[in-house]
Amino acid sequence: MKPLVSTPRTKHHRKPVRGSYDRELAYAILDEALVAHVGFAVDGAPFVIPMFYARQGDSLILHGAAASRFLEHGAAGLPLCVTVTLLDALVLARSAFHHSVNYRSVVLMGTATEIVEREAKLAAAAAFVDHAVAGRSREVRAPTDKELGATKMLAMPIDEGSVKMREGGPIDDVEDFDVPCWSGIIPVALTASTPLADPRTHEPVPATLTSYRRR
Amino acid sequence: MKPLVSTPRTKHHRKPVRGSYDRELAYAILDEALVAHVGFAVDGAPFVIPMFYARQGDSLILHGAAASRFLEHGAAGLPLCVTVTLLDALVLARSAFHHSVNYRSVVLMGTATEIVEREAKLAAAAAFVDHAVAGRSREVRAPTDKELGATKMLAMPIDEGSVKMREGGPIDDVEDFDVPCWSGIIPVALTASTPLADPRTHEPVPATLTSYRRR
To answer: What would the CATH number be for the domain defined by B16-210?
Structure first.
């Protein structure tokens, strides 16, 4: 796969060992995570909005109410920065200084265009549902034209960007090895618990939901 | 507690029922979450960086390597937007359109100042460690002056901002109640698994870590 495009603003300046432009790795992170933090600037003032998203091939897609101020700006080509982060562990060293976290993150930069064509909007709607639960778009009622009209959708090409990650245990100073303090990592992950059915549902819980996992 | 300050740029424009300026609620979210997405703009280009953070009273504190470009900008008073999001559930409706997520998020805006005084930096270092594991700052080796010098710390007053959240089940259209598709929510949460000790550690796993929880 073609690597992500490194530019001066996405170049890793520090701890280069943790940086990557591996597109496959970026896609794995994007497909596992559920929430993106979308940044844009209006008159120099930064805004960061949490958004559900999906990946559709080499594009990242966003959506929301047609009246959304942000989506209006985004459709008009306002530069965006979309960051997706997975927290994997707390890294607990013997010294305060060497505490850290294990994580995998993708930062993407670019501009988006609005998805306007009906079939493309239907495909994007399916991609959003399938990003939440793989295959679910085949089970749900598809959007009506009125619903499509009430929804604005943006697609941003996945091109300029980078991956940053940390893995492994704490890196303590040798002189701290005898500090009487437990050292190691606490793995963390977003995990699902038992699905809660809508009181009016007639259907049994599908097997894909009783054992819902992101990886 | 004094509510967060609502301004035109933090005003909730849509679905106001989900918005709040409740400071206590904002603090509960900030204290439970671990990662902030920090946004800033340079020459109109937005950047969103995932960062570990802590809350110290009515301030949100950030830190990193003294050479960090972002922290340099931040210390110089560049406007920041700090967003913290907790994902609570996937909301699976019978129609694609009514799919949603339950979440709690805080958006804070403002400028930061550098923490320079030695005692203040030591207190902030303790706050970072204690945000990861409550009380751990008493067990670890405190930072040396050299380590403090290698770390830049910023404090941003928690003032202008807002909380946004969704809770509850799917809100399906009445005419969709008979669509043969399971409807309900999948609760999700960041959960910890068994701590992994550093191979060189002499200490037993503290009880606070064997049952590590964020809430």
So the answer is: 2.30.110.10
